[in-house]
Amino acid sequence: MASLSSTTIPSVTVPLAATPLFKRANPALSLDERTEITYQRARAISRAYKLTAQDVVFLRPKFWQLHTDQISPMDGAATTLITIQYNLAAGTLAPFAFKRADLQPLLKQIMDFDVSAQFLLSEVGHGLDSPNLETTATLLPSGEFDLNTPSPSAAKWMPPTAPKGGMPRVAIVIARLMVNGENRGVRPFVVALGDGQQMCKGITSKVLPTRAGAKPVDHALTYFDHVRLPAQALLGSLDMPQDLRQNFLSVIWRVGVGSLALSTLSITALKASVYVAGRYSIRRTVTGADGAPMPIIAFRTQQLPIFHTLAQVFVLEAYAKSAAEQFISPNIDPRVRHGIAATLKAVMLQHCQSSLYSLAERCGAQGLFEHNQIIESQLEMRGVAIAEGDVLALCIRLASELLIGRYEMPAPADPTSLLARHEAGLFDEARQVVANLGEGHRSEGFNRLILPLCQPLIEAIGHRMAYEAAVKAKVNPDLIALYVAGVVKYDASWYIEYLGLGRRAIHEMEDRALTVALPHLEDLLEETGARPYCIAPIVSDESWEGFVQSLPHFGGDASMQLIPGTMAQTAGSPYETPISRL
């Protein structure tokens, strides 16, 4: 089978993955010690890439490569810090720094990771409705600003802001600009949070418990108690914008970039996890009918999730590159640009969550342990599904706007393909529901009958786009066929009802594609490029033996009598039990 991966140049992080810094952390370390390792890893990855501000602002290839680097599953928390640092904080600051010399030293510190930079937008009471955020920055007669958290619901939510990581911390804080009592919309402000040892005066960080299964990072609630900011802290104008909504979108433009960039982490999670599950399935044996050991990969039920994931890996890799090219096009409608990001995110996370669950399950009890990487990636990707735009919310907004005709997504290259016909069929059905309602998109009927359809609608667009990108990129046709078969199974009833595909025909489509790909399993696993980043003990006999030797072990000379009266008895005197007396 021809080479399938488009990644021919080894990543700059391959040597880094082999260093002691990226070895499995000792679970006996304290939370603070493990958090410190997370920051060290984030800094090491960042410095290996040497991104420039131009790479970030103009979305050059190196920016996308950072987000698809396979070192990401080794420490999802480090990746969180990196994407906040560069995409959100540096990406927001840099366009202003290009025009303001006073901001350039700070930008350089952020790009060099000499400081930890955060982006504070969402609040406890304002996530999806962040345009209604409460944090205020009030212009004072001196030209300074008073930054304040007016209520508990206005606490900034999630970004790591505590004095951790041993470096100074700054933030881009999104707040309502208040001038003479007038709300002039949101603006970004540069705020010093702490010197690495303690918080700055008037700022409080309350560190949240660690997320389930995730590497530790100091997610926090952050409060401002009338913090005085210099006039230079404002990024932008004091003037009232003509359109408050457009102003909000322009201020948080990097969130849209993050929707696309963070979603591509799905590819790295899938690669690492399928490599672990695939290698384990080749290595793990059961006793066959003839008494000989038989690898569990011989079972179709083991092959199916592994090969479907491999097909997704190579198809989604092509899709991500195609989507990034469309996203950065200067001629694209900004609404379509956001639609491309939302669509990619919907499909990436759909495949990632379902496949990681199946892969972990096929590893049995081994799949439950985070040291085997799969379930850890699954839980990390739960966070990605929410970060930079909740998937469902993005789908509802996009599908609603498409159904009421505000704009259109790129049309299918081949309207006759199975996936294009599925997309068209779902939209025809939804449009008929809208027409029958005869009400606006904010009506109760729309809420009841259309909102539940929105995510499948957007996923259908994404499936078609992924397929077309893979065809254009010349991904192996057998893997494309297997990908299509897997997507058809998501909504088999539609294909049966509208295209006349029988259930048996769908299974045969899947069977043919998998049978052709099966002999190439080992090659496909290596094509993922995941080997240098795989630290799961279950991938080989050697790594498993080393893992077992590293475990805490206990021994001793204790002796216990568990059942009284079971010691030696006199011949002819059977011990009487409650049962014998019945």
Task: Give structural notes.
Strand 5 and strand 6 form a beta hairpin. Helix 8 runs parallel beside helix 11. The chain folds into 2 domains: 226 residues, Butyryl-CoA Dehydrogenase, subunit A, domain 2, CATH 2.40.110.10; 269 residues, Butyryl-CoA Dehydrogenase, subunit A, domain 3 (Up-down Bundle), CATH 1.20.140.10. The strands form 3 sheets. Strands 1, 2, 3, 5, 6 and 9 form a 6-stranded mixed beta sheet that branches. It is 49% helix and 10% strand. With 582 residues, the chain is an alpha+beta fold.
CATH architecture of the largest domain: Up-down Bundle
* Multimerization status: single chain
Number of helical regions: 21
End-to-end span in angstroms?
72 Å
Which term fits the overall shape? Answer: globular
What fold name stands as the CATH topology of the largest domain?
A: Butyryl-CoA Dehydrogenase, subunit A, domain 3
**Biggest sheet, open or closed, and with what strands and sense?**
6 strands, mixed
Indicate the mean pLDDT: 95
Radius of gyration: 28 Å
Strand tally: 11
InterPro entries: ACOX_C_alpha1, Acyl-CoA_Oxase/DH_mid-dom_sf, Acyl-CoA_oxidase, AcylCo_DH-like_C, AcylCoA_DH/oxidase_NM_dom_sf
Organism: Cristinia sonorae
Protein name: Acyl-CoA oxidase C-alpha1 domain-containing protein
GO molecular function, one term: acyl-CoA oxidase activity
Could you give the topology of this structure?
Layout (H helix, E strand, L loop, with lengths): L13 H4 L13 H19 L3 H5 L3 H7 L8 H22 L6 H8 L4 E5 L15 E4 L5 E4 L7 E3 L10 E11 L2 E13 L8 E5 L12 E5 L2 E3 L14 H8 L1 H11 L1 H19 L1 E3 L5 E3 L4 H28 L6 H29 L11 H13 L4 H13 L14 H20 L6 H6 L1 H22 L4 H14 L1 H8 L3 H15 L3 H7 L13 H10 L32
Parallel strand pairs: 1-5, 2-5
Antiparallel strand pairs: 2-3, 3-9, 4-8, 5-6, 7-8, 10-11
Helix pairs in contact: 2-5, 5-6, 5-8, 8-11, 9-10, 9-11, 9-12, 9-20, 10-11, 10-16, 10-17, 11-12, 11-13, 11-16, 13-16, 14-16, 16-17, 17-19
InterPro entries: ACOX_C_alpha1, Acyl-CoA_Oxase/DH_mid-dom_sf, Acyl-CoA_oxidase, AcylCo_DH-like_C, AcylCoA_DH/oxidase_NM_dom_sf
GO molecular function: acyl-CoA oxidase activity; FAD binding; fatty acid binding
GO cellular component, one term: peroxisome
